[in-house]
Amino acid sequence: MLLIFSLLGMDVELWFYKKEVNYIMPRKYGKAAQKSVESAMRREKSGTLKSGRSGKKVTSRKQAIAIGLSEAREKGAKVPSKSKRS
After folding, report:
1. Which helix (H) or strand (E) holds 15?
2. Would the pLDDT of 69 be above 60?
3. 74 pLDDT exceeds 60?
4. Is 36 exposed, middle or buried (0-12, 13-18, 19+ CB in 10 A)?
5. CA 13 distance to own-chain centroid
6. Rounded alpha-carbon distances, angstroms, from residue 60 to 1, 38, 48
7. Measured on CA atoms in the order 70, 76, 78, 82, is the torsion positive or negative?
8. Alpha-carbon distance 70 to 51, whole Å?
9. 84 phi and psi, to 5 degrees?
10. Rounded to an integer, what distance in angstroms lies between the CA atom of residue 60 and that of residue 86?
11. Residue 21 DSSP label
12. Which pLDDT value is given to residue 2?
């Protein structure tokens, strides 16, 4: 940022630099969760991923990701808890 003002009849320039700080955020999902989702996506592509209750074949990518995260939670991997929607 540049500020210019007059001091005793002389123009003075002041430069202010913001110090940039890059914060490293902690991981929301662990490596085990990543592998579980990857495995579910592969099973969905090959057509072997089945939904839990009905046993039907999963065709949606979003469903495959949700199943992978659910499996990771069961194994105890670092995964955020499911959102409580009403």
Report:
1. strand 10-15
2. yes
3. yes
4. buried
5. 43
6. 50, 14, 13
7. positive
8. 12
9. -90, 95
10. 23
11. -
12. 47
- The residues, ordered by sequence, that sit 6+ positions from 38 with a Cβ below 8 Å of its Cβ are 68
C-alpha Rg value of the chain to the nearest Å? 26
- DSSP-derived secondary structure for 44-57: HHHT--B-TTT-PB
pLDDT in tens, 7-52: 555 555 555 555 665 667 788 899 999 999 999 999 999 999 998 8
- Going by pLDDT thresholds of 50, 70 and 90, the confidence category of residue 81 is confident
Distance of CA 35 to the CA centre of its chain: 15
**Is there a contact between 33 and 71 (Cβ–Cβ < 8 Å)?**
no
How far apart are the C-alpha atoms of 50 and 28, rounded to whole Å? 26
Nearest to 60 by CA among 48, 44, 72, 40: 44
